[in-house]
Amino acid sequence: MKKIEENLIDKLTQEYEKKNKEYFNELKKKEKEIENTHQKIKKVLEENKEEIKEFETILSSNVYCHGIKCNECGNEIIGIRYKCSKCEEYNLCEKCELKNFINKKHLDLFYKIRKSKTKNIINCNDIK
Predict the structure, then answer these.
(1) pLDDT tens digits for 30-67?
(2) What is the DSSP string of the chain?
(3) CA 45/CA 40 separation, integer angstroms
(4) Nearest CA-CA partner of 80 in 88, 72, 91
(5) Position with higher pLDDT, 15 vs 118
(6) Please, what is the angle between helix 49-59 and helix 2-47, to 10°?
(7) For residue 122, is pLDDT > 60?
């Protein structure tokens, strides 16, 4: 009887180790896929740096000042504001949000806010 129990435990242990190894290998595979996608995004951003700058210039003619400073660079957020969905007072400007995405620093989801609903919003053309 003891021999049967030992064989059963060995068999279950081997099956567990096999499934665990398969799961681990699948996770590693997914991690590599994510990293490859991440590198492709970085490459596309780098290749299109000038077009992105031009687009930012076009957009800047109608952007808004939120009256809030970026938690990373400390500058006032002008344009799109990224507010953390979990942290009460964590906001990023567009440039720092992009760096955050690339560096995977703050992994919570962010709300993308183009215009704030508060009364202290001013059109950036008014402050130039």
Answers:
(1) 999 999 999 999 899 889 888 888 777 766 555 677 78
(2) -HHHHHHHHHHHHHHHHHHHHHHHHHHHHHHHHHHHHHHHHHHHHHHTHHHHHHHHHHHGGG-EEEEEE-TTT-PEEES-EEEESSSTT-EE-HHHHHHHHHHT---S-EEEESS--STT-EEGGGG-
(3) 9
(4) 91
(5) 15
(6) 70
(7) no
